[in-house]
Amino acid sequence: MYNLGNTAMGLIRSVLLMQLMIFLNFILTVKASTPAVAKPGCQSRCGDVIIPYPFGTGGDCNITEQFLITCNTSYIPNKAFLGNSNLEVINISTDGQLRIFSNASYDCYNTSYRNWSYYRLQLYKFSINNNKNKFTAIGCDTYARVEGYLGQRYATGCLSLCNNITDVSNGSCSGIGCCQTSIPKGVMSYNITIESYENHVDVLPENPCSFAFVAENDNYIFSASDLRGSNFKDKQFPVTVDWTIGTTSCKEAKMDTKNFACQENSNCVDSENNSGYFCKCFKGYEGNPYLPNGCQDINECETMSSCNGTCINLPGTFNCSCPGGYEGDGWKNGTGCSLPNRDKSKRSPLIDIALGSSIGFLGLLLGIVSLCWMLRQRQISKLKDAYFLQNGGILLREELSKRQGYREDVKVFTAEELEKATNNYHESRILGQGGQGTVYKGILADNRIVAIKKSIIGDPSQVEQFINEIMVLYQINHKNVVKLLGCCLETQVPLLVYEYITNGTVFHHLHNDDAAFHLPWETRLRIATETAEALSYLHSAASIPIIHRDIKLANILLDENHTAKVSDFGASRLIPSDQAQITTIVQGTFGYLDPEYMLTSLLTEKSDVYSFGVVLMEMLTGQKVVCFKRSEESRVLAMYFVSLMKENRLLDILDPWVLNDENVEQLKEVATLACRCVRVKGEERPTMKEVAHELAGLQAMPKHPWSKSNLAGEESEYLLGKFPSTYDDGVTSSSMGMGYDSINNKITFELEGAR
Ligand SMILES: *[C@@H]1O[C@H](CO)[C@@H](O)[C@H](O)[C@H]1NC(C)=O
Ligand SMILES: *[C@@H]1O[C@H](CO)[C@@H](O)[C@H](O)[C@H]1NC(C)=O
Ligand SMILES: *[C@@H]1O[C@H](CO)[C@@H](O)[C@H](O)[C@H]1NC(C)=O
Ligand SMILES: *[C@@H]1O[C@H](CO)[C@@H](O)[C@H](O)[C@H]1NC(C)=O
Ligand SMILES: *[C@@H]1O[C@H](CO)[C@@H](O)[C@H](O)[C@H]1NC(C)=O
Ligand SMILES: *[C@@H]1O[C@H](CO)[C@@H](O)[C@H](O)[C@H]1NC(C)=O
Ligand SMILES: *[C@@H]1O[C@H](CO)[C@@H](O)[C@H](O)[C@H]1NC(C)=O
Ligand SMILES: *[C@@H]1O[C@H](CO)[C@@H](O)[C@H](O)[C@H]1NC(C)=O
Ligand SMILES: *[C@@H]1O[C@H](CO)[C@@H](O)[C@H](O)[C@H]1NC(C)=O
Ligand SMILES: *[C@@H]1O[C@H](CO)[C@@H](O)[C@H](O)[C@H]1NC(C)=O
Ligand SMILES: *[C@@H]1O[C@H](CO)[C@@H](O)[C@H](O)[C@H]1NC(C)=O
Ligand SMILES: *[C@@H]1O[C@H](CO)[C@@H](O)[C@H](O)[C@H]1NC(C)=O
Predict the structure, then answer these.
(1) In a designed cystine with 278, which of 92, 96, 129, 221 is the match (CB 3.0 to 4.6 A)?
(2) Are 176 and 293 members of one domain?
(3) Residue with CA nearest ligand 10 atom 6
(4) Is-catalytic flag, 226?
(5) Is residue 461 situated within a structural domain?
(6) Where is the Protein kinase domain (predicted)?
C-alpha cells in the first residue's frame, strides 16, 4: 500500500481544490451560454425539427412514453416521427402544440374502374385542435365523412356537387366543388370515407377524383384546378395537435412534487377539458418551462425599443424613466424625455441678476473643473508611462528594434486607439470571456476588424516572460494559428490584438442547437488535422517550444472557409530549450486537463496531446467532455470513451451524424489514436507531430468500404506502424524542438505500396 506523507497529502488536497475551482468556473461558463431546449445530453434536433423537452428521443430524454420522438436517419434531412407511429412531426412548440402531417382519402374513377383509399389517423395521448383545423372535401360528386370514437361515436362530414367545372369559383368552399366543416373538440382518432352518387359519370373526365382531408385552416385554399387531377393522392397536410402532460389537473399534479413538470418561473395551466396540464413561463420570461432554469428573464431593454429614457431590466419586467434633469415619462409612445422648458417670457430683473451671477459662478466652476481635468490628464499620462514600463514596454521596444524586418505588421497600439476601436470596452463588443481575460471586437481607424484581448496577467514578475510570449507569438506565422497583430502596454493589464475570425468556435458548431447544420465528418477530420498540425508546429517548429495548455473546442476558431485557427494563448507557456519540463500552477479546463499534469504540476508538451485526444473524442461522439446525464463512471468523456473502446463498443458512442458505411474504419483509426493520446502516462502518448502525421494519412485514406475484409486491419496496422518504436520508449523531451517541421511534412501515404 502507499504511504502518503503529509506533503503529498497537502499536494493532493490542493490539486483537488484547484480542480474544484476549475470545475466551478466550467459550470459558470456553461450557464451563461444560450438557453437549452432539450435536456442536457439529449438530442435536440432531428432534421429541421427542434425537439424541446418534454419531448425527447428515448431514455430520460422524454418525460413519458407518449413524448417519444423517433428520428429516422434514413431520410435526408432526417425526419421526426411521433412515438413509433408513421406520423411525421413538422414542428413542436413548448406552449402545448405540435404539428404533424396527415394524408388525404381519395376516391378516383374512370369509365370502368374505381380506385380508392380511406385514410385513418390515430393519436394515443394528444388530440386534434378543433379551432386550428378543418375537414375539407373536394369533388363534383362527393360526400365525405370523418368519424371516430371520442368517448362515444362521432361523425360529421359534408357534401359537394357541381354540374360543370366552369361553375366553380376559386377560394370558395361552400358546396360547389368544395365543402368544409369543423371537427369536434378532443378528437384523438379519425378515419375519412368518401362516396359518390353517380360514380362521377356526369363530371368525367373533368373531375375524376374526390378528396377529403383534415388540415390547418389556412393551409389549404381551394382552386378549381384541384378538381381536374389526381395529385392529392400523395399530398400531405399539416395538422395542429394539442399536447398536455399527464391526465390530472394542475392542483392534483402539484401534490406530486417529484413528478410535477413545471419548473421555476413558470405557471401551470389546466388544459381545456381537464385532462392534463401544461406549463407556461411567467410574463416577462421566455424559454422552456419544463427544464430547470428553462424560463429566463427577457431583457426587455434589448428586445423592445419603446423606451427613450433610461431602461433598467428587472426580473420579469423592466423600468423606463428619464435620467436626472429631464422630464417626461420616458416612453416613445408617450412624452419621451426632454429638458425642462421654463417659461422665459415673464422674468423679473431679480431673476436676471440671479441668472447673471449664477452664470459667473458657473464660469468659475468650469475653470476649476478644467484645471482639475488637465492635472488629471497629466496624471493619467504619467500612469500610462508607468504601466508601459511595468508591462515591459521598453524591453519590447528593444526586442522589436533588434528584429526589425522580421514581420512588418508588428504594431504597438496606444490605449486611445484601442479604446476607440472597442467603443470604450462597451459590453456589446464582448465576444467572449474566459479564465484568462475578456475578448472584445474592435474596429480600428482603418476599418480593420480585430479581436482585442484584455488579459488578466498583471504580475510584474511575469513581465519578461510576457514580452517573450508576445515576441514568440509575433513569430508564429502558421495558417492554423490565430495571428497576433499587436499589443498595447499603456494600460494596467496588457492588451493583445489578434486577427478577427468570423465563424465562431468549433464548440459552437458541434454543440449549439442553433447551429444551422451539422459538421460532416470530413470537415471534423480536417479541422482535427489542422489543429494537430498547428500544435505540432508550436511544440517543435517554433524557435522555442510553446505549450498551449488549454486546447479545447472552444479555443479552436473557424474562419469563413471553415479553416481551423487555434487561439487563446493566455495560458500558454514557453519552455526554454534547456528544460524539458517546467513546474506551473495547474491551469486548464476540466475534462481536457491532463491527469498526470494535475498530479505533478509538471508541464510537458504531452499535456497538449492529452487535451487534443479529448478534442478528437468530442468530434467523434458529438458529446460534451463532462456530462451529468451520463452515469457517474462515464461522466468524463475521456474515461467513458476509453472504457467503451476496451469493450469494443465504439459504435455505441459515435455521433450518428458522422457514421456511414464508408468511414467506419477511418473512425476506428481516429478513435484508437484518440485513446493513445489520453494514456495516463505522458510518455506513452504519441507526440503531436506523430498525431498530425497520422491524421493527415487518414485524411488521405481513400473512401471505400474495406470494413468487411480482415485484411483491412493488417493494412491499417501497417500504415500506423510507421513509428512503432517511438511510442514505447517515449519520445524524450530533449529531442523536442529540433529538426521537426510539420508544415513541410505534408504526408502522402503510399497506399498502392501498402496494399
Ligand atoms: C421515453 O420513451 C421510451 C420509449 O417509449 C420509454 O422507454 C422511456 O421510458 C420514456 N422515458 C420516460 C422517462 O418515461
Ligand atoms: C426509417 O424509414 C425507412 C424508410 O421509410 C424505413 O424502412 C425504416 O424502417 C425506418 N427506420 C426506423 C427506425 O423507423
Ligand atoms: C416552428 O414553430 C415556431 C414557433 O411556433 C416557429 O418560430 C418556427 O418557424 C416553426 N418552424 C418550422 C420549421 O415550421
Ligand atoms: C381505368 O383504370 C384501369 C386501372 O387503372 C385501367 O386498367 C383501365 O384501362 C382504365 N379504363 C379507361 C377507360 O381508361
Ligand atoms: C390506385 O391508385 C394508387 C395510387 O395512385 C396506385 O398506386 C394504384 O396502382 C392504383 N390502382 C389501380 C388498380 O390502378
Ligand atoms: C371508420 O370508423 C368507423 C367508426 O369508428 C368504423 O365503423 C369504420 O369501420 C372505420 N372504417 C375504416 C375503413 O377504418
Ligand atoms: C360546361 O360549361 C361550358 C361553358 O359554360 C360548356 O362549354 C361546356 O359544354 C359545359 N360542359 C358540360 C359537360 O356541360
Ligand atoms: C383559379 O386558380 C387557378 C390557379 O390556382 C387559375 O389557374 C385559375 O385561372 C383560377 N380560376 C378562376 C376562375 O379564378
Ligand atoms: C401518407 O402518405 C405517404 C405517401 O403518400 C406515406 O409515405 C405515409 O406513410 C402516409 N402517412 C400515413 C400516416 O399514412
Ligand atoms: C377530454 O379529452 C380527452 C382526450 O384528450 C377525452 O378522452 C375526454 O373524453 C375529454 N373529456 C371531455 C369532458 O371532453
Ligand atoms: C407606451 O407603451 C408601453 C409599453 O408598450 C406601455 O406600458 C405604456 O403605457 C405606453 N404609454 C402610453 C402613454 O401609451
Ligand atoms: C428620444 O431621445 C432623444 C435624445 O435622447 C431626443 O432627441 C428625442 O426627442 C426623444 N424622443 C422622444 C419621443 O422623446
Answers:
(1) 96
(2) no
(3) 186
(4) no
(5) yes
(6) 425-707
Is residue 379, in this structure, part of any structural domain at all?
A: no
The residues, ordered by sequence, that sit 6+ positions from 742 with a Cβ below 8 Å of its Cβ are 533, 536, 537, 540, 541, 688, 689, 692, 693
Residue 346 burial by Cβ neighbours in a 10 Å radius (0-12, 13-18, 19+): exposed
Claim to verify: residue 105 and residue 221 sit in the same structural domain: yes
- How long, in residues, is the chain? 755
Counting ligands in written order, which one lies closest to the CA of residue 108? 5
Same domain, 84 and 124: no
Among 269-283, 430-444, 540-554, 724-738, the minimum mean pLDDT is found in 724-738
Are 61 and 136 in the same domain? no
Range of the structural domain that residue 269 is part of: 45-96+254-297
54 upstream amide cis, omega within 30 of 0: yes
Give the model's confidence band at 274: pLDDT under 50 very low, under 70 low, under 90 confident, else very high. low
The catalytic position among 550, 568, 594, 655 is 550
* Ligand 3 proximity of 219 Cβ (cutoff 6 Å): no
The count of other CB atoms within 10 Å of the CB of residue 479 is 14
Residue 623 within any structural domain of the chain = yes
Q: How is residue 755 written as a grid cell?
A: 496494399
Q: Looking at ligand 9, which residue's alpha carbon is closest to its atom 9?
A: 86
Residue 638 cell numbers, joined: 475521456
pLDDT tens sequence across 490-515: 777 778 888 888 888 888 888 876 55
451 and 515 part of one domain = no
Kindly give the distance from the C-alpha atom of residue 103 to the centroid of ligand 9, in angstroms, as a whole number: 6
Q: Which ligand is nearest to the CA of 168?
A: 8
CA of 113 to the centre of ligand 4 (A): 6
User: Which residue's CA is minimally distant from atom 8 of ligand 5?
Assistant: 115
Query: Residues 163-205: pLDDT tens digits?
Result: 888 888 888 888 899 999 999 988 999 999 999 998 888 888 8
The count of domains in the chain is 5
- The C-alpha cell that represents 493 in the structure block: 493589464
Contact at 8 Å (CB) between 320 and 331?
Answer: yes
E strand intervals along 575-684: 582-583, 602-603
Is the predicted pLDDT of residue 713 greater than 50, yes or no? no
> Over the stretch 599-631, which tens digit does the pLDDT of each residue have?
888 888 899 999 999 999 998 988 888 888 778
Q: Mutate which of 164, 165, 206, 228 to test ligand 7's pocket (most atoms within 8 Å of Cβ)? A: 164
Place of cell 418525460: 63
Per the model's pLDDT, the better-predicted residue between 456 and 30 turns out to be: 456
How far apart, in Å, do the first and last CA atoms of the chain sit?
Answer: 51
Indicate the top mutation candidate among 74, 79, 85 to test ligand 2's pocket, ranked by most ligand atoms within 8 A of CB.
Answer: 74
Using CB atoms within 10 Å of the CB of residue 141, give its burial: 0 to 12 exposed, 13 to 18 middle, 19+ buried. buried
